[in-house]
Amino acid sequence: MMKKWLIRIGRAAMMGLAWAVAWAPLAVVIGTMIVDSDNSMDEMWALAGIYPGFLCGAVFFAVLGIAERHRKLDELPLSRVGAWGAVSGLLVGGLWVVVALLSDPPQWLLYGAVVGSLTALSAVSGVASALVARIGKSHEASAHVA
Known about the structure:
Elements: H1 2-35, H2 47-67, H3 78-103, H4 108-145
Helix pairs in contact: 1-2, 2-3, 2-4, 3-4
């Protein structure tokens, strides 16, 4: 039982790591070209993608594990995987809003932008994860044939 949980935690961490790696360059591009185009801020833009990417990826794995217990990622319709990705983005974005409301006065436009971005990126990342799983499965099947 304990070994099963450790395997699940490791897989959730790997999904989070994969999403973090994919989101980091996107955060750098958005941070340097849109948010700070005049280079006046001293920010580590990669971290702006790594932290939420990791959290959204790990939450996505957990949501899939709960909602789609007996199905593998490569077996799910892309629309459903995208929806579960969006759910993970909403959950992590909602957590961020709660923390932000406890520390700062409300900035609703910023909150909407963050939650919307996390939701959209998570939906796209969920679909991309399913496509990667399908490609891996097809390569595995073709290797067994040869």
